[in-house]
């Protein structure tokens, strides 16, 4: 307060402030200094504290663990507990004492307590003679800012490291479409230097991306793939462009070199095309093989059925039954291969029709009874009485699943039993979950092979095929069909004691009182109806003709589509049986030609395709050609009869 001595309490007319006014100004200044969050303090020339505010006192208490007092020496405090802050700041403060103003950011504090980063502004203080007699320091905690800057720097360094190792080009294009910048390791990767694209026209460099570039120049971000030809080599880039934030009317872009990825995609596409071609060739091969094998099989099975219906002698009956069993086994092998191919190609579609579960199961039981009796194996199917009688689903595929599993069980069981159990797992609203279990006392399966048996073309041991026959496809087909229907099959087996296969399938409960059932083998006379059989294979013609004569049908014949077309024009037929593969004009062309004839009777004439193929595409082609239905060769008598009877009776 020495400065205030001699100053009048009242105002004089000299323009100088009074003592009271100075005290008020000092009080205001002191209030400001005490309320600020910044540390403000002053040293004498020996670094003894001569002034400090509360904020600095609190900072020292936090960072050093002491209560600061006037007269305390800064250097002694800074060197407490082996600290090095005194040595660091003494160099700075000596420069200030020499009359220099310094701004610096440094880290201070006790390692054991608290350290922080501070921004300091250090100014020298002068006495009345102009000599430096101390210094003032304005200090703020900038730890958060320093930490943020460090984090940004680290991330920037990391990002730059990534970008430096990525084949990326960063570029800028002005409003005229001219490159004004091009940098990045993506340039060096193709033999270019930074800014080597500068001055070139982006629309000429990326001709296929002109629209996207125009959109970006108009202020809309976008993506596009571009190609760059350089030294006879083509490079492909994935571009991301957006309006430049600092240069209105220009765009900034990032181009990532995806040449290798692009080439891999092309190679993959070519491989896919080759695979599809191979699949198509396989499909065509199966169609041709199906036709070639099924045509003679049609004769063998058909003639066997005919001979069995002609009261053969006991010794002939045994031979015919062997022939029938062998031909049907061969047909089963063919069907397995073709069925698996259909499933593999994703060509299997599941029906959703009403069917009688009880009658379907009884028909399956009757079909396997003879096999079980021949082996003296007890065979039975148990049906939960709580199961609804009429369900909605695919009865044909369900029959195929159960036939495969029952046939397998009977094949591998020489004594004991084969039991099939159907039980209702649950019913919610109109959804019925049915559990199926097929148990046998057969040869069983080794534990390590339980999953293996569901693979294609595999069986439980190397001698299974030799001892029992089969393709090794039955369980693979069964598994795929169950999965298509939303279920999963499991097996529990003990080697030498037997196996249990079990799975659940979901059906809808039907409101109808009757549904699809397996047809009974009953042939009624079809006298009075006339059929045109179009078939180029003489054996097939003889076999089909013999059956139809037994049903009292009036039969006419044609050996190719042209002859069939002429006969349809001249004669009235109740149904046409149309082979598909014939010389001169095939069944598709002939059927289309018949439908194109003028007259109502040609539009309504039932045409049933005779096909040796079981591929789904055949069914679609049959319908596209205007045919009403189809029968697969080798046909069984019941199917042939029921299809003919269905259409002639409609007329």
Explain the layout of strands and helices.
Blueprint: H1 19-35, E1 39-44, E2 49-52, H2 54-64, H3 74-78, H4 85-97, E3 102-110, E4 114-126, E5 132-141, H5 143-165, E6 168-173, E7 179-183, H6 185-189, H7 202-205, H8 210-217, E8 222-230, E9 233-243, E10 251-257, H9 259-308, H10 314-344, E11 353-356, H11 357-375, E12 378-383, E13 390-393, H12 395-411, E14 417-428, E15 431-440, H13 464-468, H14 474-484, E16 490-494, E17 498-509, E18 530-534, H15 538-550, E19 554-558, H16 561-570, E20 575-579, H17 587-595, H18 600-604, E21 607-611, H19 616-624, E22 629-632, H20 637-650
Helix pairs in contact: 9-10, 9-15, 10-14, 11-12, 12-14, 16-17
What report would you give on this structure?
The protein has 651 residues and is of the alpha+beta class. The protein contains 20 helices and 22 strands. Strands 11, 12, 13, 14, 15, 16 and 17 form a 7-stranded mixed sheet that branches. The protein has a 5-stranded antiparallel sheet with strand order 2-1-5-4-3, sandwiched between helices. It has a 5-stranded antiparallel sheet with strand order 7-6-10-9-8, sandwiched between helices. α9 (259-308) runs antiparallel to α10 (314-344), α11 packs parallel to α12 (395-411) and α16 (561-570) packs parallel to α17 (587-595). It is elongated. The model is unreliable at 1-8 and 457-471 (pLDDT under 50).
